[in-house]
Each structure stands twice: as structure tokens, then as C-alpha cells.
């Protein structure tokens, strides 16, 4: 198991690499190129520069998140083949510089939805939350609220160039149901997995966030059945899952522990996002501190299931609170994620030393 930390690059992240290097047990960076629009090839020179910068700090770059999938691929438009070829070239370019896992998603329009980026907890810290009352707003209103709460930071999956035409994008999906989106996903994954197998890269799809339909948009990565179908449509170790414990648990009907056990045993989880959530009522929740007692998930049990079923991939602490006066990109401050990483490493050490 390798513990890694998401970082957006020196131009887009206020956290210096040397600070991340000081987190005990942190082995690597989950990197990305923020300035490459979806559908374009990631240039080798930029990948090389990112890798050299990270390795100079004493960390590794083996995981990339996210190589965004162009909406034309999700919609199944005639132009998708061009974007798929670009995606395959990006996979080759990343593999050339040692990348082993690519995290991505297949969510239409929005990569994730939260209704509050500054939800205040009793201790005064702030976190991200989802309350269904907020979804009664229009998509445009939610985008405006999110932008107003994000400060000067661009949020992953909410890039302005993607969302400026949000109404038109939602309209474009009016004839795309879950069945059609599955067909479009199958077309995409069947096209890229041979390239992944050739160069030794594992694709790791992120669950829908939340794992049910919002604004009438289709969802195909929302439960155990969907994950099984994804792993079956192309039966290859290169076709895997980023198992996000927070996202999959946002639907209380999902048994996150059973899902973790099954797909770890099947060797289909090369990457895990491990975070805790706290249900407020029904499906409303906020993103809690990692400690089990602070949320609705048993984090010891999550790590135990991964450990005891032979997990040997990458883990990153996911979505921390803003604490101790820190400001920055919501969910991606330094302090709380560092605490979360230390906690998860402590649980893993305890599991390793059990008699």
C-alpha cells in the first residue's frame, strides 16, 4: 500500500511540495495538469516537467487524477473517435513517464455536486456538504453558489470552460438514459483498454458523486451492480475502480465494506479515496473528519477490509476540512488531510502488527 496526496501543481495549489513531503508516511503525489482542456492530448514536455518537479521533492508521481473524458464521448457523438484517439495518446505519454494509474469519471456535465462548500461544524471548522434542499435550485444557481464559495481556486470537475454552457449540456443529455450512457462508456473503454494493457496503465473509474441521478442526468457508476458491469464489459486488470468510500457511501443502500471486499479480491481497485461522511438526515450529509467516531463510516473496518483482502494499490486521504485558520481550495487544505493520512497510516500499521 502506498499513501499519496493530491496536488494541483505550483501554479494552482498554495501548498508547497516540501510541506507534503513532511507528512509522515506520504510516498507520492496524485498529480494533474489543470490547464489541458478535456479532449486534448497531455503534452510530454509538461508531464516530464511535473514528474521532475515532484521527484526533486523526494516524492513519486505514479497516479494521475483526472484525465477528463470529453462530453462528446459520453454523449456518443460522431466526434468521439477523435477525442478517444487523443485520450489513448495521453495514456501512452503518461506511461512513458512512469504513471501506473489514471483516475477518471464518466459523470455527465458535473463531476460532483455539493450544495455547501463552507458548511460550519460545531468546532468551527468548515467542510463540504450535500443537502437535497439545495438541489431545488437550478443548475445555474448551484454553479454560482459554488463559484462564490471557492474563492480564487478553480475546482476540479467545475472548470469554467466546461460549465459556461451547462444548460445546453443538460439539454444534450435529454435523450441519453442509463442504458445509452452505458453503451457510450462501453465504446470508450473497449477502445482504450488495449492501449492500457500495452503500456502497463490501469484505468480507475471514480463512482458517481452523489451515486444517484441529479437534474435528471443519467448515472452508471452508483452501486455494486454498476461496478460489476463495468469490470465485466472489458474483463481486464487494466479496467479498474477508484473506490471512493465517501462517494459510494452517500447512498445508504450501498454496503461499502462488502463492495471493498469483493472488488479488492477481484484485483480491480488500484486506487482508493478514503474519507468519512456524516449523515444529517436521509441522504443529506457532510464530509466529516477521517476519525470513525466523527462520521457514519467505520474507518478501521474500511482499512481492515482492504488490508485483509490483499490491497496493494494507492490510497489518498480525501477531502479534508478547513481547520486552524487555513484557507484554500475547499476540501483540499493541507492540515486536515495530513491528519487524515497519519490516521489511516496508523490504522494500517495496527492491522499489520495484529497477532
From TrEMBL:
<keyword id="KW-0464">Manganese</keyword>
<keyword id="KW-0456">Lyase</keyword>
<comment type="function">
    <text>Catalyzes the dehydration of D-mannonate.</text>
</comment>
<dbReference type="InterPro" id="IPR036237">
    <property type="entry name" value="Xyl_isomerase-like_sf"/>
</dbReference>
<dbReference type="GO" id="GO:0042840">
    <property type="term" value="P:D-glucuronate catabolic process"/>
</dbReference>
<dbReference type="Pfam" id="PF03786">
    <property type="entry name" value="UxuA"/>
</dbReference>
<dbReference type="GO" id="GO:0008198">
    <property type="term" value="F:ferrous iron binding"/>
</dbReference>
<dbReference type="GO" id="GO:0030145">
    <property type="term" value="F:manganese ion binding"/>
</dbReference>
<keyword id="KW-0408">Iron</keyword>
<dbReference type="InterPro" id="IPR004628">
    <property type="entry name" value="Man_deHydtase"/>
</dbReference>
<protein>
    <recommendedName>
        <fullName>Mannonate dehydratase</fullName>
        <ecNumber>4.2.1.8</ecNumber>
    </recommendedName>
</protein>
<comment type="pathway">
    <text>Carbohydrate metabolism; pentose and glucuronate interconversion.</text>
</comment>
<comment type="similarity">
    <text>Belongs to the mannonate dehydratase family.</text>
</comment>
<dbReference type="GO" id="GO:0008927">
    <property type="term" value="F:mannonate dehydratase activity"/>
</dbReference>
Amino acid at each position: 500500500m502506498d499513501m499519496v496526496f493530491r496536488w494541483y501543481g505550483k501554479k494552482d495549489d498554495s501548498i508547497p511540495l516540501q510541506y507534503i513531503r513532511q507528512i509522515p508516511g506520504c510516498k507520492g503525489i496524485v498529480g494533474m495538469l489543470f490547464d489541458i482542456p478535456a479532449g486534448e492530448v497531455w503534452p510530454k514536455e509538461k508531464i516530464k516537467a511535473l514528474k521532475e518537479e515532484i521527484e526533486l521533492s523526494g516524492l513519486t508521481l505514479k497516479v494521475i487524477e483526472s484525465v477528463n473524458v470529453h462530453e462528446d464521448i459520453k454523449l456518443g457523438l460522431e466526434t468521439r473517435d477523435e477525442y478517444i484517439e487523443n485520450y489513448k495518446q495521453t495514456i501512452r505519454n503518461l506511461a512513458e513517464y512512469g504513471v501506473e494509474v489514471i483516475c477518471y469519471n464518466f459523470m455527465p456535465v458535473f463531476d460532483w455536486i455539493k450544495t455547501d462548500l463552507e458548511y460550519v461544524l460545531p468546532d468551527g471548522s468548515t467542510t463540504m456538504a450535500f443537502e437535497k434542499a439545495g438541489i431545488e435550485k437550478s443548475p445555474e444557481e448551484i454553479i454560482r453558489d459554488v463559484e462564490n464559495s471557492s474563492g480564487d481556486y478553480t475546482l476540479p470537475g467545475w472548470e469554467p470552460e466546461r460549465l459556461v454552457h451547462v444548460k445546453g449540456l443538460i439539454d444534450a443529455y435529454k435523450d441519453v438514459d442509463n442504458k445509452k450512457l452505458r453503451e457510450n462508456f462501453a465504446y470508450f473503454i473497449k477502445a482504450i483498454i488495449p492501449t492500457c494493457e500495452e503500456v502497463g496503465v490501469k484505468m480507475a473509474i471514480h463512482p458517481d458523486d452523489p451515486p444517484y441521478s441529479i437534474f435528471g442526468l443519467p448515472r452508471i457508476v452508483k452501486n455494486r451492480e454498476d461496478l460489476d458491469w463495468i469490470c465485466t464489459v472489458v474483463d481486464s486488470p487494466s479496467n479498474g475502480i477508484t473506490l471512493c468510500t465517501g462517494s459510494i457511501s452517500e447512498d445508504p443502500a450501498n454496503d461499502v465494506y462488502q463492495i471493498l471486499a469483493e472488488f479488492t479480491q477481484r484485483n480491480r481497485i488500484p486506487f482508493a479515496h478514503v474519507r468519512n461522511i456524516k449523515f444529517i438526515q436521509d441522504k443529506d450529509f457532510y464530509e466529516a473528519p477521517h476519525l470513525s467516531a466523527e462520521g457514519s463510516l467505520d474507518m478501521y473496518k474500511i482499512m481492515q477490509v482492504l488490508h485483509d483482502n490483499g490491497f496493494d494499490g494507492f490510497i489518498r486521504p480525501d477531502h479534508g476540512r478547513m481547520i486552524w485558520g487555513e484557507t484554500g481550495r475547499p476540501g483540499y487544505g493541507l492540515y486536515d488531510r495530513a491528519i487524515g493520512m497519519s490516521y489511516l497510516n496508523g490504522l494500517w500499521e495496527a492491522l499489520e502488527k495484529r497477532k
